[in-house]
Amino acid sequence: MYSGGFYPYDTQEEHWAYWSRYIFINRYQDAPKPVYNKLLKLVKGKDYFVLTTNVDHCFQKAGFDKRRLFYTQGDYGLFQCSEPCCQKTYDNEEIVRRMVEQQHDMRVPSELVPRCPVCGKPMTMNLRCDDTFVEDEGWHTAAERYSAFLRRHESSKTLFLELGTGYNTPAIIKYPFWRMTVQWPDATYACINLGEASAPREIEKKSICINADIGAVLDALEK
Ligand SMILES: [Zn+2]
Q1: What one-character DSSP code corresponds to residue 31?
Q2: Number of C-alpha atoms within 13 angstroms, CB side, residue 176?
Q3: DSSP class of 222
Q4: How high is the mean pLDDT in each 10-residue block of the chain (223 residues)?
Q5: Which of 11, 84, 118, 120 is most buried, by the most CB atoms less than 10 A from its CB?
Q6: Distance CA 171, CA 177 (A)
Q7: Sheet holding 187-192, edge to edge
Q8: CA distance 75 to 132
Q9: Spatial distance between the Cα atoms of 16 and 162, rounded to a whole number of angstroms
Q10: Spacing, Cα 117 to ligand 1 middle (Å)
Q11: How far apart are the CA of 204 and the centre of ligand 1, in A?
């Protein structure tokens, strides 16, 4: 699905037939496993904060506190102007459901192609793929909350728990976690990742790397 998202469709009608189904499955249907719910149980009552590059809203759907969450790369559930003419985002659930229901022959009806209510240009997903990404008010508020959380915890006992972060955008979670683990006196870095669990030598003594399925490890932690 992810690779298909890069395909240059000839028409907006085909583009939205693909993307409406993509958004519907990944954003509006439930996650196939209760991994997020298990994670929430483990952090409940703790002073936690979630930094994520996921754009599927699964943390919110599982009940994580919105004020303890920074989704850095956007949200499939939001549209923005493709230009963009202003720093605004729009909830897309209703229009996405209509595009899924009304498409035929891999095309949505032309009147359902979403357009910016301000300038009339085509809409696009609020996803960071280039410098047109709109950082709306919610994004900035979350960014500030994350910075404040880090400032508050610099000298306290902190666990940087990294779950399934690969090397697609390591500069957002992985590298900063490594750097803070080096710099913060009482920090521990834990990485759970099936096939890619590692830490640099500089933080070897402060690291726990588990090469396993995240759901299985959270199960074991719960028990
Ligand atoms: Zn616009």
Answers
A1: P
A2: 11
A3: H
A4: 91 96 94 92 95 92 93 93 95 97 97 97 92 93 97 96 92 96 97 95 97 96 91
A5: 84
A6: 9
A7: 158-163, 187-192, 207-210
A8: 14
A9: 34
A10: 7
A11: 49
> The tokens of 125 are what?
């997903």
Look up residue 200 and give its two tokens.
Answer: 């640099």
Tell me phi and psi for residue 109, to 5 degrees. -60, 140
**Tokens of residue 63, six digits:** 């009940």
Place of tokens 């919110």: 60
CA gap 5, 179 in Å, rounded: 33
> What is the CA(110)–ligand 1 centre distance, in A?
18
Beta sheet of 74-81, edge-to-edge order: 90-91, 74-81, 123-127
From the CA of 85, how far away is ligand 1's center (Å)? 4
Q: State in Å: Cα 179 to ligand 1 middle.
A: 39
155-186 in b/e form (b: 16+ CB < 10 A) is eeebebbbbbbeeeeeebbbeebbebbeebee
**What is the predicted pLDDT for the residue at 116?**
97
Is residue 80 exposed (0-12), middle (13-18) or buried (19+ Cβ within 10 Å)?
buried
Q: What's the 113 CA to ligand 1 centre distance in angstroms?
A: 14
Query: How far is C-alpha 26 from the geometric centre of its chain's CA atoms?
Result: 11
| C-alpha to C-alpha distance for 94 and 75, rounded to whole angstroms | 15
